[in-house]
């Protein structure tokens, strides 16, 4: 973002729509959860019940997804998503920094939010982050080819609406993901534009590099959307701790949920001892 654009955002009151707060459960230190693309706060069904006895767990539906608004003029850039996240968090009037957890697209938004508002976040947890860099910036030809394949696949999904919707419906039915996986007429615009403007075109590596609070990355060994070459860049950053979950794919299934809860709890214990 240029200096003039940043100045205009600072002096111009934001009219970002508030997001639907799908859950606000428990008492204690606050954890805010951001779900991924083509989903909703139902992503964290296996997580929040394990934490709400000693944390205040708050989950949002992202702009255009779940029960959140989908403005007709929205372009679903990372800036628009983060602006609505910021406005919604501000509406909660929280007294202390919180733990921010993002899954998939939500992890990219969480990284950008933390980079922009460093005093608000005490710890950042990125779950199944689809982190990519432009293929022309990748030296390893195998990694470059794999990232290029991801980009072509995403473009195919955006350009073939009927196929994408039908495939999502079939997968949801086969794997009982109807509450988690949703690509429909209602969120189609949010889906294709978020895919294009947030996942395919991202600066997440530089966002993570600028964050100074501890970062945990939790991901499955079978995650179909992880680019190993890019993940190696992230794991070399000294504020980042990697947590690989065997036999788990991209979704927050019970195995990954259990590890995520453990990571959050252990991080809170370390922070308490450091005080």
UniProtKB/TrEMBL annotation:
Residues 29-192 form the AB hydrolase-1 domain. GO terms for cellular component: membrane. Keywords: Hydrolase. It comes from the Bacteria. The keyword Lyase does not apply. The keyword Hydrolase applies. GO terms for molecular function: hydrolase activity. Pfam families: Abhydrolase_1 (PF00561). PANTHER family: AB HYDROLASE SUPERFAMILY PROTEIN YCLE, MONOACYLGLYCEROL LIPASE. This is Pimeloyl-ACP methyl ester carboxylesterase. It comes from Salinibacterium amurskyense.
């Amino acid at each position: 973002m240029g200096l003039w654009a940043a100045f205009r955002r600072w002096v111009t009151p934001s009219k970002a729509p508030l997001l639907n707060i799908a859950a606000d459960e428990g008492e204690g230190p606050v954890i805010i959860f951001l779900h991924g693309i083509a989903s909703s706060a139902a992503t964290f069904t296996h997580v929040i019940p394990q934490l709400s006895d000693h944390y205040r767990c708050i989950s949002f539906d992202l702009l255009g997804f779940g029960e959140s608004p989908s403005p007709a003029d929205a372009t679903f850039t990372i800036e628009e998503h983060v602006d609505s996240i910021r406005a919604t968090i501000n509406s909660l009037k929280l007294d202390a920094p919180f733990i921010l957890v993002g899954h998939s697209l939500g992890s990219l938004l969480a990284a950008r939010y933390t980079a922009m508002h460093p005093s608000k976040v005490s710890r950042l947890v990125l779950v199944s982050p689809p982190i990519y860099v432009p293929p022309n910036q990748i030296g390893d030809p195998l990694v470059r080819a794999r990232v290029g394949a991801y980009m072509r696949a995403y473009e195919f999904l955006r350009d073939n609406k009927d196929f994408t919707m039908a495939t999502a419906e079939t997968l949801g039915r086969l794997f009982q993901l109807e509450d988690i996986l949703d690509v429909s007429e209602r969120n189609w615009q949010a889906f294709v534009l978020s895919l294009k403007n947030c996942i395919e075109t991202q600066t997440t590596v530089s966002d993570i590099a600028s964050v100074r609070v501890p970062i945990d990355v939790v991901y499955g060994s079978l995650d179909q959307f992880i680019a190993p070459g890019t993940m190696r860049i992230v794991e070399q950053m000294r504020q980042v701790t990697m947590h690989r979950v065997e036999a788990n794919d991209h979704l927050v299934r019970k195995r990954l949920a259990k590890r995520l809860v453990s990571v959050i709890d252990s991080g809170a214990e370390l922070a308490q001892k450091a005080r």
